[in-house]
Design a protein that fits this description.
alpha+beta; Alpha-Beta Plaits; 2 domains; globular
Amino acid sequence: MNVLLWLAYKGTNYAGFQVQPNGVTVCAVLQDAIEAVLGARPDVKGCSRTDAGVHARCFAVNFRYGGTPEPRRLVLALNAHLPPDVRVLAAQAVPEAFHARYAAHAKTYRYYLRCSAVDDPFTADTCWRVGAALDVPAMQAAAQTIVGRHDFAAFCAAGSSAAAHGDTVRTVLACTVAGQGETVIITVTADGYLYNMVRILAGTLVEVGRGKLDAAAVPGILAGRDRAAAGPTLPAKGLFLEEVIYDPADLML
């Protein structure tokens, strides 16, 4: 059967999701748990690769298994073999053709900022401290100019394969900036992302919030396709994958 797992994880101690030879990854510890529970080490398909240090509140993976594990028991059994910073939230059987990455219609990411001179010890590894207060209305105005179908080459890490092949057009369905006390949250929903796209987008909006960049300049940065014109790539620790959106019909057996 084809099994869909919904995960949540804190990425601080991991070299991203995808298995790599030079570090512990979320996929590797998940495969270890699956092997311990089911006696097989299947190939796991993730909805996103996520970089080292990036977190996820809602991450989808699928794998194929010859047996018929009962979903509720599978959740409990896998969590018994996983480290505490990786949790399986739910499991279900899905159609054979379902693929966690290719079936996703959109994904939502959030970047968390702390506007304070002092780190919060409880969130120091899950948000980035910017120090002084940010101009949230200006950031929101800039965020709205990003919504739509654009060439996001300026918001793509230099040297990425997508940039090299000119495959840099994506559709941003929504982009908002909201302040909650000392916390500012940037939320982006898109049909796809380029390498470091959200972290560069967040860095650009922070430059607007600091008054170093005018909100009206962002459309020109998009049009110019020059990575050097956009803001810095913010640290991975403030980034969360919040939601993966599928057509419900694609999940039904």
